[in-house]
Amino acid sequence: MKKALIIVDVQNDFCEGGALAVPGANEIIPYINLLMQDNEYDQIVLTQDWHPANHKSFASNNGKKVGDNIILNGIPQFMWPDHCVQGTFGAEFHPDLNRDKVTHIIQKGTNTDFDSYSGFQDNNHFMKTGLDDFLKYHDIQLLEIVGLALDYCVKFTCLDAAQLGYVTCLHFNGTRGVNVKPDSAKNAIYEMLQNTVTILG
Ligand SMILES: [Zn+2]
């Protein structure tokens, strides 16, 4: 069975000192580097949150406060601080992440009007990113998933992966939750378990 490692959004803005820092984010980077060193993955894919500066997921672009909720294209949208703006330092991958064996990069959130938590598609399920096509083209059947943040982009990437028919495993030590809402990371784990995602300790 061919397998791929999917590394979700390990970018400066989600790490220590970043605009949308996930607590403990930097701790997962050595773990991910070891996974790449100790395993033979057929493909290693990075996802990269890659927003235009006027992106609608930013509170600043809607006259809202960070943490507010709006309805965007008919679905709830949490208001984030400006983050991962195309071409900025915050959008770059963390320099400690070893990228020697990376075979592909998927950028998401590039359309001003749509947020994209999943690495596979935007939150409205309007546009696909090309990740599924890439993996199917390379005959990948098993996905191991790590990255940031557990309760948003990692969760939705895992749920879509399982839905699309991949054997889907989340490395618990390779992810951290942002927990902007109480128990959000814990609930994300329950939701993934209910949807055939395997959690590897
Ligand atoms: Zn984003």
UniProtKB/TrEMBL annotation:
Xref: InterPro entries:
Isochorismatase-like_dom, Isochorismatase-like_sf, Isochorismatase_Nicotinamidase
Q: What class of enzyme is it?
A: hydrolase
Keywords in UniProt for this one? Hydrolase, Metal-binding, Pyridine nucleotide biosynthesis
Q: Which residues form the Isochorismatase-like domain?
A: 4-198
Give a GO molecular function annotation for the protein.
nicotinamidase activity
Tell me the Gene Ontology biological-process terms attached to this UniProt entry: pyridine nucleotide biosynthetic process
Entry keyword Metal-binding: yes
Q: What is its EC number?
A: 3.5.1.19
**Pfam families given for it?**
Isochorismatase
Q: Does the keyword Metal-binding apply?
A: yes
Q: What does the record give as its pathway?
A: Cofactor biosynthesis; nicotinate biosynthesis; nicotinate from nicotinamide: step 1/1
Q: Which family does it belong to?
A: Belongs to the isochorismatase family.
Protein name, please? Nicotinamidase
Q: Which organism is it from?
A: Kaistella flava
